[in-house]
Design brief:
- It contains three helices and six strands; from the N terminus they run H-H-E-E-H-E-E-E-E.
- By secondary structure, it is an alpha+beta fold.
- It has a single domain, classed as Roll (Nuclear Transport Factor 2, Chain: A).
- The protein is globular.
- It starts with a helix and ends in a 6-residue tail after the last strand.
Amino acid sequence: MGLIDDGRPDEWAETFTEDGVFQEASRLSEPLRGRDAIRASSRARKKRLDEEKVDFRHWLGMLDVTREDDGSLRTRAYALAMRTPRGGALDIFASVICHDHLVNVNGSWQVRHRDLHHDGSGRD
């Protein structure tokens, strides 16, 4: 998350597998499928935040990690998404539960599937 918060969308997209999926039902009508789609969306997000002069940050906690039989990892974490207009006050934008499926690709952990559920959506 630090990469996208630091305005580095291309590097952030590289943390996903080539066929990675980014799903956020309360914000996206369809999941983003594939690293190229994730990269394009994160570039557009950076452009929008730059134009709006807004700093955006994520704070993660309560991480739970489970190793699967195939060696992949399933994670669950709470995340606070916060935005601050330059010169303005901090706004906690959303409280989210983040579910990741991580796989090892050539010695590096990458996200195969990220599924975000906003509090109040009725999903965990």
